[in-house]
Amino acid sequence: MERQSDIEGKRPGAGKGKAGASRRSIDMLHGGVALKLLLFALPLAVIGVLQQLFNAADVAVLGRYAGKYAMASVGANTPVIGLLVNLLLGLALGSNVMIARHIGSGRRQEVHAAVQTSVVLALATGFAIMAVGEALAGPLLRLLGTPPEVMPDALAYLRLFLLGLPGISLYNFEAAILRSRGDTRSALWALLVSSALNIALDVGFVSGLGLGAGAVGFATAVSYTAAGLILLLGLVRTDDLLRVDLRRLFVSRPELRGIVRIGLPAGIQGMVFSLSNLVVQSALNSLGPETIAASAAAFTIEINLYCVQNAIGQGVTTFVSQNHGAGNIPRCFHVGRVGMLLEMLVVTPLAALVILFGRDILRLFNPEEAVVAIGFVRILWIVLPTWVSCGMEIISGVLRGFGHSMPPAMASLVCICGVRLLWVWGVFPSWRSFECLMAVYPLSWIVTLAVLIWIYVKFRHEFLREHGARRPL
Questions:
Q1: Which residue ranges make up each domain of the chain?
Q2: How would residue 14 be classed by pLDDT, with cut points 50, 70 and 90?
Q3: I need a labelling partner for 84 at 20 to 30 A (CA). Which of 138, 155, 158, 374 fits?
Q4: How far apart, in whole angstroms, are the C-alpha atoms of residue 187 and residue 171?
Q5: Of 139, 3, 17, 236, whose CA–CA distance to 25 is shortest?
Q6: CA 29 to CA 7: how far, in whole Å?
Q7: What is the DSSP string of 284-305?
Q8: CA 402, 407, 412, 417: dihedral to nearest 10 degrees?
Q9: Model's pTM, two decimal places?
Q10: Is the backbone of residue 327 left (phi > 0), alpha (psi -120 to 50) or beta?
């Protein structure tokens, strides 16, 4: 085992690299955890909110200028898009864990190899998923039972949105690369520019030119591609260890295997949520365009709360990864405890604000009181039990940080999918109401959290017995 002073000397930014790069980095291996984790997570939370603003802007602009059917076309696509994007996010998380672990252990060559491999993987998967999505767009929307009056706009939106998948993939992998050393602000600035561009294009296309949902999907594709190119330019021009050399891109098989081994289960876990939501969406579509539109508006509100939970969870994963690489096992578990406390302290007041002002925010998307009333029902069912999903995020984050990515993925596959399938196919047909459909979300979370707690306790006991606590906090 290398001495800590040796590791320090090898850490990127320790005596090398631009000052700007070191200012944006966070030392995850020493000192207190809570403040550093919060500073790491805040830009990530804002990034998540800005990413949702893409969807919110699409829904709001179409709802205001093109009517509730055009607005519903975005809602009908939400689970489909989530299915594809979550796979990319999961794979990117694999890059984050691998690079953070190498940084923690001071392996400079492996960091470089993982960075180059990540960029190649980002582009390859982005284009591949785009091609598959374009081929299956129509059949998938028909399989979901998208109403005929919504179908043309929904298909146009999806097809043009899919053109941006390579840019979305590139942006998320680049953000994961930067996040591995504690830099979450660079990705935030790129997305701020991209969000402003998206809103301007949405309003210009729909309000100015009178175009429909397809143009809004195209605006999102263009904007995400711009964000990916901005970060790529920064990684190409930097002179530190995370530099991307476009003329010498290569794939390291060991790094690729590591990224896929950790990232693919995480992607599957995200896809499981989306697959189960596809089933819920198919039941939701049977309740009519008004309900679809209301659910889409509520989703754009509640998902921002999840962005905060997810940001802290990603912070836990990165902190655990670096400390695992450095051999500080007690600090890894300490990060998990601090992350759980931080989740509750931050998310609880935000949830209260969402419930307090939920109806007013819903009216910004569509002023029809029937739509607002239905949307608020969803907010109550999703936001009130949000503490359950907080626990799921932190436990999954700790396990992924150790490279133990498959168990939380399997728990989600069995519990989330299983409970929601049984509910939609077994219970909903007898009580066909929006409230009945929404009840499946907290129910599936509670079952999944119970299983994740069991997995975590078992993993912690076996890991400490096998490896021991090799370093102090």
A1: 30-467
A2: very low
A3: 374
A4: 8
A5: 17
A6: 10
A7: HHTT-HHHHHHHHHHHHHHHHH
A8: 160
A9: 0.74
A10: left
